[in-house]
Design goal:
Elements (H helix, E strand, L loop, with lengths): L5 H18 L1 H20 L3 H31 L5 H33 L2
Length: about 120
């Protein structure tokens, strides 16, 4: 699979997005939050900086969710039995998604406060 052309690599990435969408409720939930963020941006029409920051946060959260999914799938495949170290790996990956999600929520709150203030 190494050294494939751009189109092939793009196909693999799109297949990963499709699999995450179909199999992971968390990814669908985070995607719904991304759509809600876009709607909020369209309604508030904030400065371009807020659009950029929101885009970065949405991308980070979705990317972290994909990495979390990949780690969980790999860990479950390599070690299907329950093991404390595997649990720690999965919990830490989920915690990374949680922290980024909280950061995205914080950004949304600050953006709304900035919009409401005269």
């Amino acid at each position: 699979m190494k050294n494939r052309g751009f189109i092939a690599r793009l196909g693999y990435a799109l297949a990963g997005l499709q699999a995450a969408w179909q199999q992971e409720r968390s990814f669908r939930t985070q995607s719904g939050c991304a759509v809600a963020a876009l709607v909020l941006l369209l309604l508030l029409r904030p400065a371009p900086l807020w659009w950029a920051l929101t885009g970065i946060m949405v991308t980070l959260v979705l990317a972290a969710e994909l990495i979390n999914t990949a780690l969980e799938q790999l860990a479950d495949h390599l070690h299907p039995e329950q093991h404390p170290n595997i649990k720690l790996v999965k919990d830490c990956a989920a915690a990374a998604v949680l922290l980024l999600s909280l950061g995205a929520l914080w950004l949304a709150v600050i953006m709304v406060i900035d919009y409401v203030q005269p």
